[in-house]
TrEMBL record:
The protein's name: Molybdopterin-dependent oxidoreductase
Residue span(s) of domain Oxidoreductase molybdopterin-binding: 78-224
Family matches, as SUPFAM superfamilies: Oxidoreductase molybdopterin-binding domain (SSF56524)
Pfam families: Oxidored_molyb
Gene3D superfamilies: Oxidoreductase, molybdopterin-binding domain
Amino acid sequence: MTPQPPDSPAGPDSGGAPVGRRVVLGMLGLGAAGLATAPYLQNGLDSFLGSAADKDPTGLTGLLPNGGGFRYYSVASSVPHKGPENYRLKVDGLVDTPATYTLDDLRAMEQTRLVRDVQCVTGWRVPDTPFEGVRLSRLLAAAGVRPEARAIRFTCFDGTYSESLTLQQARREDVLVALRMQDKPLSHAHGGPVRLYVAPMYFYKSAKWLSGITVTPEVRPGYWEERGYDVDAWVGRSNGRDDAPTV
């Protein structure tokens, strides 16, 4: 079976009753309006589409670009909302000092800002997108990675998605545990309050709704890699694509 691309409108949880024609036409109208109206209206459109995507069993909301050019997509039928009161990020596995971080803990750490293009493996690209957060290498250093470690497994509070990096990739300076995107806190629709951001790789590597960082003895392929996508997903050098690098 051909895998569905990570930003396509269909996926394993796309079954269910169809969204009504009026709802679809209304969302399409809002999508067009978001492209033409002032930026402050875009925040409301982001919120609406993100909420609609959580409740859309057909995945049709994945067809709608917002004003920033991104597509909404989740492989889970619904994703809980988390904030400062209940968000937790666990670092464990082959480490000397496992840790659990709150959102306030992460915000209090030194923040790194990167501005890069975002490239989806399905073809769309969003240029010059700022991300800001804590370098993953800093969290790994604080945990004390054991000598036998070779890779990282990332899990998410949607209960379904996972990703992977080698330890060498995870220690790059352009890999973040991101708290902000486009100079504002990460919205739920964009994977907030915390997501992974792997600047030089296709966007499916930048797991949304990040909740777990587990150090492992070998690479364990993530959700889309188990369905045929490349584990080493360098932009322009993987998945049969020749896109311009994002870094």
